[in-house]
Amino acid sequence: RRTTSPRAREKAANLIDSNRHLFLDIWATFHQDLPGDLKGKSSNCQWAYRQSMQRLEPQLNNYDTSKIIITCCDADTLLHPQYFSAISYQALCMPYHERVWSIWQSPILLMRNLYSPPSPTRLSGYATILFELGGLANQTFMPHFSYSAYSITFAMASHHLIDGWDRDVIAEDHHMFCKCFFASIWEQLEVLDNKDNKETGALCANVSSVKPMVQLSPVYLPAITYLVHSDDGWLASIFARFTQARRHSQGLAELSYVILQHIHILRHQPPARGGKRF
Question: What is the mean pLDDT of residues 145-160?
Fold first, then answer.
């Protein structure tokens, strides 16, 4: 196991001391290297999620888990002061089945140091801003993916088909959206599989009516983050942006995950009456 550096523990202690008055409870947890963990945000989120479940387990049974909201964001993210109020209001205005399968997303604006990085890096930042705003404003063509900083309900994160974040992926935000998206479909298929249908035709009709339940609810309040930048000069900043883009490109692996999920769903055959499959 990796030992946490004293500097990390000191930084966590300083953050807790300076922000303790803003929260009912605040604590730090340090992710240890475990077999099967891929170093990155997804395994970190899963570690924090598990640690939080253990710490809060006595209280969780006393609340509606669809009204407990988990927010995941990068360390450099500045959320709008009214962000948590906005998602709380939206969540309480939703019916239960809609709230459970909701993901809340603010547009990510890479503007905290907009004029410090080189112009090619700024240009890529502008493109990200346009993509985020466009995706949240119009989700008719396809659902917009959760990205970088987002919120989900504890009911969805703890669903037996989801069980938190995966420890072996890199693009945690896109992957979590896809995972929840297909989990909502598999849940409906499980219900149909367990249902005692008298007619095979009726079961087929029900299967054809299965639809994804996950929806991404836009929160039109900006979340501001940094563009990648190096203090070692123009070329070093460009190389840092290239390294970041190369890491982001590994999110293409989600395409294979989505295709495999589609194939499994298309091959799914619900049991007919009497336990046989058709």
Answer: 94
Q: Strand ranges (DSSP E) for 79-197?
A: 102-105, 108-110, 150-153
State which amino acid sits at residue 40: G
All residues at 6 or more sequence positions from 185 whose CB lies less than 8 Å from its CB, including other chains: 210, 211, 212, 213, 265
Distance of alpha carbon 93 from alpha carbon 99, whole angstroms: 9
- Which of 274, 5, 38, 248 is CA-nearest to residue 128? 248
Cα dihedral 259, 248, 109, 91 in deg (nearest 10): 40
Backbone phi, then psi, for 149, in 5-degree steps?
A: -125, 120
Q: What does DSSP assign to residue 268? A: -
Residue in this structure with the two tokens 């009516």, named with its chain if needed: 209
pLDDT at residue 223, rounded to an integer: 94
Across residues 232-242, what is the average pLDDT? 93
Which of 188, 170, 183, 137 lies closest to 254, judged by CA? 170
Residue with tokens 């008298």: 198
H or E, element range at 72:
strand 69-72
Q: For residue 144, with 0-12 CB atoms within 10 Å meaning exposed, 13-18 middle and 19 or more buried, which class applies?
A: buried
Cβ neighbours around 224 below 10 Å, total: 19
Give tens-digit pLDDT for 165-217.
999 888 789 999 999 999 999 998 888 887 655 444 444 556 667 888 999 99
Is the per-residue pLDDT at 35 higher than 90? no
Q: Which two tokens stand for residue 129?
A: 């801003």
Say whether pLDDT at 272 is over 80: no
Strand partners, 72: 150
Among the residue ranges 3-7, 8-12, 88-92, 270-274, the one predicted with the least confidence is 270-274
Q: For residue 225, what are the β-bridge partners?
A: 110
At 228 the three-state DSSP class reads coil
